[in-house]
Amino acid sequence: MSTGFEYLDHTADIAVRLTAPTIPGLFKVAAEALKASLAENVSFKTIETKRINLNEYSVEELLVSFLNELNFLLSVRKFVLKSITGLVIEEYEDIWQLKAECEGSYNPEFIPKYEVKGVTFHQMEIKFEDGNYITVVVFDI
Amino acid sequence: MILNGIEINRIRENLWEIPAVSGMKVPGRIYISENMLRKELQGEDALKQVMNVAHLPGIQKYSLAMPDIHWGYGFPIGGVAATDIDDGVISPGGVGYDINCGVRLAVTSLKSADIKDKLPKIISDLFRNIPTGVGASGAIKKLRDKDIKQILQKGSYWGIENGFGSEEDLIFTEENGRLKSADPDAVSSRAVERGLDQTGTLGSGNHFVEIDIVEEIYDEEKAAVFGLFKDQAAVLIHTGSRGLGYQVCDDNLKLLVQIGRKYGFNLPDKQLACAPVNSKEGELYIGAMQAAANFAWNNRQIIMHLVQKSLSNTLSMGKNDMGFRLLYDVCHNIAKIEEHIINGKKKKVCVHRKGATRAFPPGSSLIPERYKKTGQPVLIPGDMGRYSYVAAGTEKAMEETFGSSCHGAGRNLSRKKALENARGRNLIKELQGKGIIIEAKGIKTIAEEMPEAYKDVANVVDVMHNEGITTKVAKLRPVGVIKG
User: Fold this and answer.
1) Which of A85, B177, B232, B330 has its CA 20 to 30 A from that of B299?
2) Range scoring the smallest mean pLDDT among A105-114, B22-31, B157-166, B292-301
């Protein structure tokens, strides 16, 4: 099974299947899928770093929060993501924690390809199959 | 019959029931023709979602779906569910991200011949005057946070107080354009930031402003009361609460997914996250959702005013000279506390309408005096190449669907498939060939929103008409469209 993301046919919105050998890898693939859905042909003049810290009760909720955070940064604050570095995901006493550094640049002229209203919990279940973590994420547009 | 592994039994010609099984508190009921059921719901998750909704604590009578049912999140689009306000729940999944997405129809005294020659300029002027597309902003002077807070509290009243329309517009807006229990303090600063410069903007996707011509009248009496006549020019506006509403949904969904653990709800889909209506969390969501609904009504109010000003400039006619007036404004993504008859007794319930339109009957105290004898106007937009409908609410809707009807056509093709179908075609010319002028931010939007990407709304409207839930009043044909 190849890692990365693939678009699934969805009547109204954007659905992507994510595959990666690790949980942090899955989150990075998810970020790539969101970025690919919203931004294209972006050039980066100066690179800034934006830190994200999130705590949730499950890994699925953490993934939705993470993607919603990126969507907010991109769509509202116009922080165009280049890459995710220093991504750490830990579970401690039933709380899932995420720390990440987002590299990118603020571009007030940036217009996303789509308006992602929200990242849904629909069909959201992270499974481990054949050596990879797999899930489906639907972006409501 | 068994469809997608689900037992579904015919109750009437266009009404089907899914028996309550495994955790469903009530049966599911779907208003749909056999042909649509077999053709459109084969292999779709929407029926399963009707069953999932039936698991909600406190759900009354049935988990309902209108004929424009299709796959949504938590609820199907076209889903209606009423929950007990004492021991039932409220779910953001039953409202959707675009809180109070809705439609408003303004009519004029003009006929098609009065606008025909100027139509290209009418559309290009509208496109210039109404910000459209992803991230659209700047329709009116820049607002401050405190202005937004006022909009969240006052809804359409804010628009009227600030010169964007007349007081009469409030009479012809569902809830008079303002839900009174709105709580601006329940709306996060992030939601305010997301909606700050979006007041008076159309947005993207299926949102539009359309110039229509009344093509057919089905009910002369009701049409006359609505102020509709054949060959009349009208304006249809479809948009919602924009980024502010999306964020209110995001914020509360996240909270209610967590809270579900506290209440011990065991629901088949996380997107059905909910809280008791009368809980602290439920009230917080209701306050924020109502505030977002108010934002949406004010948005449509301002857009309509911008449309009227634009038309006045293009046609060199004043508002009264054009006979420009709001026929009605309805929302189709909302949850509201309403009184309905349950098992022979009046009861207050929380009616979730996710892609469904309120359709109150003649005599309802909640509709304008003018429409007391006809029933509430129900506005059902189709696609940009065919037609839209005006219908009227009935007593049967109150008896069977908690006063609800359908809301539109529903997509038939994915965006990807629509783009594939559009390859090598000139859709602008195709639409021109049908007498429709379109302006949009990009050719991709036109391709994704092409008429064949949508189901035929006539089939949807006919199901509701034939089942007596709404009565067809008029059909509108688009002649000019602006989209994001």
Assistant:
1) B232
2) A105-114
Q: Does B193 touch chain A (CB under 8 A)?
A: yes
Contacts of A84 (CB under 8 A, 6+ apart): A27, A28, A31, A100, A101, A102, A103
Q: Which tokens hold the place of B173?
A: 């807006």
What ipTM score was computed for the predicted complex, to two decimals? Answer: 0.90
pLDDT in tens, B135-190: 677 778 888 889 999 999 999 999 999 999 999 999 999 999 999 999 999 999 99
- Is residue B305 part of the annotated active site? The answer reads no
Q: DSSP 3-state assignment of B358?
A: strand
Contacts of A117 in chain B (CB under 8 A): 97-98, 246, 249
- Partnered with residue B63 across adjacent β-strands are B28
Q: Of A12, A121, A138, which has the smallest distance from its Cβ to B257's Cβ?
A: A121
Picking from A10, A114, A120, the nearest residue to B414 by CB comes out as A10
Q: How many CB atoms lie within 10 A of CB B188?
A: 16
Per the document, the length of chain B is: 484
Cα B418 to Cα B42, B144, B246, distances in angstroms = 20, 40, 25
Q: Hey, is the C-beta of A11 within 8 angstroms of any chain B C-beta?
A: yes
CA geometry: angle at A119 spanning A113 and A124, to 5°? 135
Q: Is A60 on the interface with B (CB under 8 A)?
A: yes
Does the pLDDT at position B257 exceed 70? Answer: yes
Alpha carbon distance B79, B269 (integer Å): 15
A9–B416 CB contact, under 8 Å: yes
Using DSSP's 3-state secondary structure scheme, residue B101 falls into coil
Q: Give the pLDDT band (50/70/90) at residue B292.
A: very high
With 0-12 / 13-18 / 19 or more C-beta atoms within 10 angstroms meaning exposed / middle / buried, residue A40 is exposed
The model's pTM: 0.95
Contact with chain A for residue B39, Cβ under 8 A: no
Q: What was the pLDDT predicted at A1? A: 56
